[in-house]
Amino acid sequence: MTPPPIRTSPPGALSLSLLGPLSGRVDGRPLPLGPRKQRLVLAMLLSRPNTPVPVDVLTDAVWPDAPPRTARKNLQVYVSSARALLGARCSGGPDGDDRERLVHSCGGYVLRVGEDELDTLRFRSLAAAGRRAADEGDPSAAAGLLRQALDLWQGPPLHGLCDSPEVAAEAERLEARCLTVHEDWAETEISLGRASAVVDGLRDLAERHPLRERIRTAWMDALHRTGRRAEALAVYDDYRQLLARELGLEPGAAIAARHRAILTGRSGGARPGPSSAPASRTPAAPGPVSTPVPVPAQGAAPAAAPVPVSRTVLPAVVPDFTGRGEQLRELLDVLDGESGRVVVVTGAAGTGKTALAVRAARLLAERYPDGLIHIRVRDERGVVRPPSELAGELVRRTTGAAHPAQPAPDAEQWRSWSAGHRSLVVLDDVPHEGTVRELLPGTGRGSFVLTARGQLAGLAPVHRIALPPLAPAEALELLGRLIGPGRVGLDRAAALRIAESCGFLPLAVRVSGMRLAVMRHLPLAEYAERLADPDGALDELVAGDVSVRARLACGWQDLSPLSRPALTRLARAVREGPFTLPEATAAFGCDERRALRTVESLIDAGAVTCPSGEVTAHAVLYELPRLTALYAREQSAAAPAPAEVPALADEPVPADEPVPADVPEAPGAPGTGPGLSGLTRVSGLADPAAPVSRTALPVG
């Protein structure tokens, strides 16, 4: 199905919104909507666009108790002001012709607006298109259109005006439409095997609308399909008790049938798909896939049955996985096609890249019947493993151990197998492109998810997904899962300060929660003060054998010897929060061109972040994550950076400078990796023509 085109407003066009606070914009500039009574009139007219709204209805909306004698005259003033505000003519109305914007008709007023001018009209059009796509058997298109409709919502409709009963009734009607579309979207996503992407949102909706049975049914279904059967059954039991207590009723037939199916194990967790045969596996808990056992011919001696090969090798699911709904949907969409794809998930240390990749892999189990494999690119000591070793492990995981008489598997053997099989491989913690380039077949049916702190810019073509920090609400939710929502609710301001001091990174928030869960006596406000102290924050982010400092140390070691001083200078000079290119130039003590290249190299390494949209270098606001800055300052304490870069321009790299272990020596340059020979230390600002290490970052 081809979805209908969605019109966008041309420059200078009017844009009005009811799906949230009443607002308007013209040419991107906020539109002053006038005093409260005028906004109430405008809200009622926009709630019934292109339809006469009786004067009595408008009067009741503005003066719900006792309208004054001058009510009708006052309404005329408000309508006249709205007409002047919105423009006299409308060229995008339902008839498509140029007509008067706001007119008196049939005992009321009609406000003419086009679909591209009002978000509720766009919402209605997208929802209708999504339902048509579902009716035509295209659930993927339906899910996308319904999601676009939901993305138009910015909060409770007509927020701030609902003390007027008439406006509140219109807001309730819009809210009901949104709930119905959310239910449609959630059920469609579940049917596509993406229950994990909707389960958290359904929980929130069920808490706000506890008696809405369709939401409860979808939530129960989503929990079950993500492997949380006990929680799914608890949802039904809570709902049954709530109905009996509040209304004296029993649950409806649909949710009761779903409950019985989950209880008896006849839930049909597998979803139909273009390439999936009937199966009993659920996406959340894929079992091992065994090689088929041949049946001997009649009269022949039975052959020895081959040992089953487990082709599902994934870490345990993170039980408190929170947020990331948008990134998870994007990852599932990219990997859900028939042809193989390579996806690079990037983000700073502790952003939850591995958890996201593993969750997506489990949800796509049926789409990749030939194997779900997770491989750590580094060994237990953090040393990068050579590609030949990774290829050997991949071959053994997917085809069984090599025969002793056979040569050890190599990268070519792995690429040949991967090109012809439908497998999904997660290559975790990739330091640079050379580690994995030999393992990617380029064509075929196998897909790969690479997690990396750096950007891996040398790999193409790949799909990139950047993981930003959590939203504040998501960080608080994660903290609440670990220490209890009640404890967070007692001092929400302190909990938010804890999340802010953690940089809203999932790892740091999780470690804080684990620490607070043990130290029940420690007030959140006191712990927030500890984290706010830059000298002791990293000491506080330790829980047992889980340490944020240790994770930051891995990222530090991945930086080239030339990039570390640059990061140190930046951490010492810039304040917490965004910084500009002139500030970076002053920190490095060099010209602007070198400063820009250095900042961009740190962005490639994942040490510095920048906005996702296009913007000129002089206007961009970069950001150095707080915890990264604290660690860099720690590292610089024993070896202060020199005062000026030019003074170090001719200082050679010491012979004992640590070089990444996985970089082979360059011919004729013992003790140095390729590209390190002949480099000079310029605090991360090397000459632009100088060669660079392939494991390091180009900083010149």
Describe the model:
Strands 9-11-12-13-10-14 form a 6-stranded parallel beta sheet, sandwiched between helices. Strands 1-2-3 form a 3-stranded antiparallel beta sheet, with no helix packed on it. The chain has a 3-stranded antiparallel beta sheet with strand order 4-8-7. The radius of gyration is 30 Å and the shape is globular. By secondary structure, it is α/β, with parallel strands linked by helices. Mean pLDDT is 77; it is low at 1-11, 268-310, 401-406 and 641-700. Helix 1 (36-47) packs across helix 6 (165-191) and helix 17 packs parallel to helix 19. The longest helix has 27 residues, at 165-191. It has 25 helices and 18 strands.
Q: TL;DR?
A:
The chain has 700 residues and is α/β, with parallel strands linked by helices. Helix content is 43%, strand content 8%.
